Amino acid sequence: MRLVRVAERNEGRNVSAIIAVAAAILLTGAAIHAATAPVQARPVLADAEVPSTSKADPSIEGAPNEASGEDLYQRGFYPEAMAEWKRAVEVNKDPGAAFRLGEEYLDAKVVERDIPAAVQYQTIGAKGGDMRAQLDLASFYDQGIGVQKDVRLAAIWFEAAAKQGHPSAQYNIGTMYEDGAGVKQDRVRAYMYYQLAIEGGFPRLATPALERLAESMSPAEIKQASLMVRNFKPQSKEESVAEAKAALEAYEAASGE
User: Fold this and answer.
1) DSSP assigned state of 12
2) Is pLDDT of 158 > 70?
3) What is the pLDDT of residue 54?
4) Most buried by CB count within 10 Å: which residue of 32, 152, 168, 207?
């Protein structure tokens, strides 16, 4: 089951929720059976001449990586795909492969659900700069799924994904800035993130949130937020990694005081 994690609002309060947008998975054609009809004898080829259908496409550059695992996954070789992603994490520290592993251990489509493993791999992916993993890890901390609930850590990871341009993460961190949950309250920044979420393709929740927030803001504040939107430039993965690392160090320093 593929999950979309967004923060929704209820009676003016910020209540984050995990929304399942795919409640059912239709498994049509899940198994392919070999034909049983007799066939004529064929010449035996050397092993090197017979392409393996359970190996990733060797033309995929940089394998093992997320793409080489996805190649196997799409062809129905699920255990092989999981193994390929694990190799990609171990050998190449691939954050996208870590995200896919975390997703599979959470969704339990091809493996048993393992929340600690999901948290482990999404943490690797998030720290490696994958904005999908950052969004998922933020949701874990926001909801207390597999980890102790911590809105400050949720805000760090939501904003990391938002700064890379993830629209639903932009909406999520917008709600936190509006309410001062996990971050210092900042309506101008909340407005900016709502507008970015709308422009990025997440208008369903962001549009009413923006309209409601605008009613309590001055024209000068809205102008400032609009200018911030205009000047917004998504961070690179490398920039995200560096900033998230600094934010986590600051969080740990403050927690130790």
Assistant:
1) T
2) yes
3) 86
4) 168
